[in-house]
Hints:
- This protein is mostly helical.
- The chain has a domain at about 100-375.
- The protein has 27 helices and no strands.
- The protein has helices spanning about 1-20, 25-30, 35-40, 45-55, 60-75, 80-100, 100-120, 125-135, 140-150, 155-175, 180-195, 205-215, 225-230, 235-250, 255-265, 295-320, 330-335, 340-360, 365-375, 380-400, 400-410, 420-435, 435-455, 465-485, 490-500, 505-530, 535-555.
- Helix 9 runs antiparallel to helix 10 (about 155-175) and helix 18 (about 340-360) packs antiparallel against helix 19 (about 365-375).
- The protein is globular and about 65 Å long.
Amino acid sequence: MHNRTTTKNLITALLSLTLVTLASPAIAATDDPAFFGRWLSILPPLIAIAFALVFKRVIPALFLGIWLGAWLIHDGTLTGIWSGLLDSFEIYVKAALADSDHAAVILFSLMIGGMVGIVSRNGGMQGIVNRIVRWADSARHSCMTAATMGLAIFFDDYANTLVVGNAMRPVTDAMRVSREKLAYIVDSTAAPVACIALITTWVGYEVGLIDSAIGNIPSLSGQGYFVYLATIPYSFYPILSLAFVFMVAWSGRDYGPMLKAERAARAGEIHAGRPSRRHDTDGQEIEPDDGKPQRAINALLPIGVLVVSVVVGLYVTGSRAVDMPDPGLRDIIGSADAYRSLMWASLLGVLVAGALSLSQRILNLEQVVDAWYRGLRAMLKAIIILVLAWSLGQVTDVLGTADFLVSVLGDTLPAWLLPTLVFLIAAGTGFGTGSSWGAMAILIPLTIPLTWAVMQSQGLAGPEHMHILYSAIASVLAGSVWGDHCSPISDTTILSSLSSGCDHVEHVRTQLPYAMTVGAVSIGAGSIPVALGLPWWAGLGIGLLLLAGVLRLLGRDPEVTGDG
């Protein structure tokens, strides 16, 4: 009931935003007879969001948006309904796949997924777990161990969730840590670290969306990976969420429903999750074979090769492309071909993972290929969403959606307010759909051109104001992760409950106050003041102090039963 009410409120907000847009002074004052027809250009993304919120399915929502946009391009005629349907696939989806940069992102993402599959099957990932878990000899240490493992397995959120939850559950049970606490730690390290780490299964997806949307910004065109790197310091919610996990784990203090769960666990009441129906997720654990060695080096070395190869690739391609005498490192990296570097690195990572598995006879060739394919297969749904997002972006470009929004809001919407508004819309979309990637796919193609155009119209397009654009992009990513965290229908939320053996409703209920706290601090200390000119590092510092203060003020030691 609560989720239905939230969805209705979100749809009402979207419709209200549309009415406000249409009633704005820019529309009232226009003498352009075609102006009232151009407002239809906002319908494809708006309908995509509304459909996704109602039916909880991102892929049909994106395709519906593409179809609607293609129909509008055919002037909304009766025959255009059929022509738009055919054009949706034959023109826009094909064009998204045919783009060479898009193909590079797809191949890189698939290869990273394949590498994750191999290092999971050859026992390398479990070897990392075995090394870390030896320290978990108390309630505090077991929580810190789970959080550290969440950071260590940074390259994929599904692998992170499944491995950490299943590996740590017996340990935290023995230390009388609640299943709810473990599920919170698992859930709040998986997506946040995958969202902001330099090389993950998320990077190709995020870079693909960003690069497609910045094509009309001359100074940034083709620099999707570097723009992504520039947004990391402004990803306040993921960073502060990770920090808060460690604060909670180290201090041993909790508040809200989590405190009650922890006190029950200390009293010996470990509440296991109830059997639940099968959920539609892509997360399937790839387990190593019994009796085979589980060596951490078999995961650490491929990951190390992956990271180092990206850096080396950036330097090599930048050195070849830079056209100046005695270039500096910034000039070389700025001229680098990020897509080529990422493709080289992903290929080498897979080859090293496979070679280690074969040379130690942990897996045979058939098993290596099977593990690679199973890891790759887990990325297919994300690739489909990405291709449809690219296609919807092309449709909105043809319709001039961003131009319309700028003509309406460019002079009236304060640029400093954009990151916060974007965060809230992304959070609502992520919550309603249960998909952070779906929210990103719908919102990034609109957010980037809108933010840039608003900055231009207000004279803020210089280098000294680029933090507004970076913060707006980061707000889409961060807001999507927040919505995903809080949503009971999110795949990673469901997987966190299942892998931790926690009742799903209890996991959502106990995690929500923590996510709400971090989200509020992210906006109050990060998005708003940083958009107004506060350095990002100062925003993060203030946010950390505020979170520590909240935990000190509201948190209680579960070992002590007489104080709240």
